[in-house]
Amino acid sequence: MARLTGRRLLAAVPVLALVTFGMFAVAAASPFDPVRQYVGSGVGASAETLDRLRANLGADGNFAEQWWTWLRSAATGDLGHSLSLRQPVAQVIGERLGWSALLCAVAFVAAVLGGTALGVAAARRPGRLLDRTVTSLGYTLQAAPPFWLALLAIWFFAVRLDLLPAGGLTDPGSDAVTPGGLLRHLVLPASVLAVSQLPWFVLYVRQGVLDALREDPVRGARARGLDERTVLLGHALRSGLLPVLTLIGTRIPELITGALLVETVFSWPGIASATVRAATASDFPLLAALTVLSAIAVLVGNLLADLLYGLADPRVSHDEM
């Protein structure tokens, strides 16, 4: 496991470098001028002033030079200055990353546990009413965009029933974040994000357990007289969960995308608001840092999936990954 982690860390360096290089290349092809947007369209500025400002902001030269300058600064911990939020990029990320991580962690755990339970229940009696209901619901939710689920949840639980707040992190008229208030404001966005991820785990677990129930070891366990609960949970579930462990890593990008949409709809003070603002303002220093952050999350998710797969299946060698 240590060797696998070391190899992945070494491979991550050129991957992140290429990701940031591509980000600066796309920025160079963009028709928007970040310096002019930084100054403001209503403010008149001479070409000399704009050139001086570009030099101060590190936006002069071609994109390769800008990338190399940013990369050297990032290696020392200096991620630059956000043009849209007028703050250091590290400060922008530090103030918002914790809230995004909390939302994603709660939603992902709920999706994995709920999807596993529903998938096992559906696979226990294939073709029955519960199996058909769970499968149909899974395919339906797969096609539902997260922002649509978020708007529907706000309309039903916040507007019609008035049970939960529609968004934000604190109650109106209050700036203090309390544990009870945080929990109330977290329920809706975390539930919507979990539901958007739930179908994949339900369908994968169901199919994995169904395949495991047809394997010889499971048939042998039944032939030895073991009760159905022991066969299902002690034998079929462990084998059926192996594809899900791989799915955990591959769902990280979709989780990040869904979190951006959910945070925007619920006004959750996470990375989403900074990402949207950076994109609309051509804030490339902040976009580069957020792109690196997303790439790191994907790499960590893939590594975690491989480690969990190796632990769950002793036939898999980490040296072969």
Task: Describe this protein's structure.
75% of the residues lie in helices and 0% in strands. The protein contains 14 helices and no strands. Helix 5 runs antiparallel to helix 6. The longest helix has 36 residues. The radius of gyration is 24 Å and the shape is globular. The chain is mostly helical and 321 residues long. The mean pLDDT is 79. It folds into two domains: 74 residues, no CATH class; 228 residues, MetI-like (MetI-like fold).
TL;DR?
The chain is mostly helical and 321 residues long. Helix content is 75%, strand content 0%.
Strand and helix map with partners:
Elements lengths: L1 H28 L4 H6 L7 H11 L5 H13 L13 H36 L4 H14 L3 H15 L18 H35 L2 H8 L4 H13 L1 H9 L1 H15 L4 H10 L3 H29 L9
Features:
single chain; 321 residues; mainly alpha; MetI-like fold; 75% helix; 0% strand
